Amino acid sequence: MRFLILSDIHSNFAALEAVAKRARGNYDSIVCLGDVVGYGPDPNPVTDWVRKHCQIVVRGNHDRAATGDPVIEEFSDPAADAAIWTQSQLTAENLEYLRALPQGPLAHSNFWLCHGSPRDEDEYLTNKHAAQENAGWLTGPITFFGHTHHQGAFAMRGGRCWLVHRDRPLTIEPDTSYLINPGSVGQPRDGNPEAAYALFDDASKVLAFCRVPYDIEQTQTRIRNSALHPYLAERLTLGH
Ligand code: ZN
User: Fold this and answer.
1) What is the DSSP-derived secondary structure letter of residue 111?
2) Which terminus of the chain has fewer CB atoms gathered within 10 Å of its CB, N or C?
3) CA of 147 to the centre of ligand 1 (A)
């Protein structure tokens, strides 16, 4: 089976549309690692799309913040204001859908899904040290995570941990554990403003890290025409 792995869409419908168009025909099922909403101008179109197309979705901290969870108290001002604005925009059905999203890690097919890390849904898995600290929480060889908005992966074998090259396809090797981040669809922070996603074929055991350009200006205009902080538009060009 071939999977389209999405994370951190963050209410950016133009980016999501570009990913869906580019990936069309290359997957059988879609999974989402959370942060469907927050930051971006299109909470309802994105949530409608996710409800319709994603087979399994893990909750993210921004999904919780936009549905009344106290995690919002840990947010920066622009992020908290965006969560409050998002909550005011969401339809009752979408609000209820996001509020009911399950906490990771979740088992799916022959891999696992979480938003932050296997041990803590709010942890930022940014380095090898953090990856190794999570080794005891892994319940299978392949775990997908999001939250950092950095596309890439950590591989672990025999007490060793290394970064996986994201510029070429990754072939899953035996006796090796992987923590894989598809990157952020709607607000990349790894220096590349193009929308990020991953494609995984569990028959051939090959994963591809993908990027696709999208109409950033369209999303920026929609942010500037809303009550969202203008910095949330500027950072999309910067890719951080
Ligand atoms: Zn996020």
Assistant:
1) E
2) N
3) 5
Which of 194, 176, 177 lies closest to 185, judged by CA? 194
Q: Which residues sit opposite 164 in a β-bridge?
A: 153
CA of 61 to the centre of ligand 1 (A): 7
User: What is the reported pLDDT for 109?
Assistant: 87
pLDDT tens by residue, 88-107: 999 999 999 999 999 999 99
Say which residue the tokens 């913040």 belong to.
Answer: 65
CA atoms within 13 A on the CB side of 232: 26
pLDDT per residue as tens digits for the range 164-183: 989 999 999 999 999 999 99
Distance 8 CA to ligand 1 centre (A): 5
Can you tell me which residue has the tokens 């930022």?
A: 124
Distance 185 CA to ligand 1 centre (A): 10
Distance 35 CA to ligand 1 centre (A): 5
* 59 and 101 Cβ atoms separated by less than 8 Å: yes
In order, the DSSP letters of 45-90 are: HHHHHHHHH-SEE---HHHHHTTT-GGGGGS-HHHHHHHHHHHHHS
Is residue 46 scored above 90 in pLDDT?
Answer: yes
Identify residues whose C-beta is under 5 A from ligand 1, the ion.
Answer: 8, 35
- How much of the chain exceeds pLDDT 70, in percent? 100
Q: How far is the CA of 93 from the centre of ligand 1 (A)?
A: 22
What type of residue sits at position 183? G
- Residue 149 CA to ligand 1 center (angstroms) comes to 6
Closest to 142 in 3D by CA, of 192, 88, 180, 189: 180
Q: Is 216 helix (H, G, I), strand (E, B) or coil?
A: helix
